[in-house]
Amino acid sequence: MSKDKDTPKEIDEFRISKDKLPAFKKILVTDDGKDISNKALNYAVYLSNSTGAELFILRILPDVEKLGNISFEGSHEISQIDDQDFHRKIKGDVIEAMEDKIKKCKVAGCKNNVSYKFLTGNVVDGIADEINNNNYDLVIMLSLHMDSWFKSLFSDVHKIVRHIKKPVLIIQ
Q1: Which of 3, 7, 68, 108 is 20 to 30 A off residue 93, Cα-Cα?
Q2: CA 80 to the chain's CA centroid
Q3: What is the domain range of residue 55?
Q4: Distance of alpha carbon 58 from alpha carbon 121, whole angstroms
């Protein structure tokens, strides 16, 4: 079907053409800190290598007080290069586990930059807000409730997908 000036925009949007192919520059993968989350991360590493996209790992921490061993330090210095030079240092088990996960991604062959972000609060709202407020090209999430339509209907992944407008790869 050739493009016609009378072709409605909705139909044109679904044409197959070189200019409609997606380009992945930023891939977000969700992580809950459990080993099973690595299944989604494996797909993310593969797609990152295939597309050249940067990986962002997002973990929502619903109960900050349950984190245990964490310390935050910050300092501010005036430098000649820049009027404001901030130094931050965050330590703790959850940070070390994430940095270890990133090292494992590199050992597994990840060729691109991998970053992580921690947010606190409600898991569904936090993930949906992060996706909607940032320019991710693809979201990769793990769902353990795809074996039943009833369970999947009420899963966090389903709730998140309903509130975002980005392509999602669901790993089960």
Answers
A1: 108
A2: 36
A3: 24-62+112-172
A4: 13
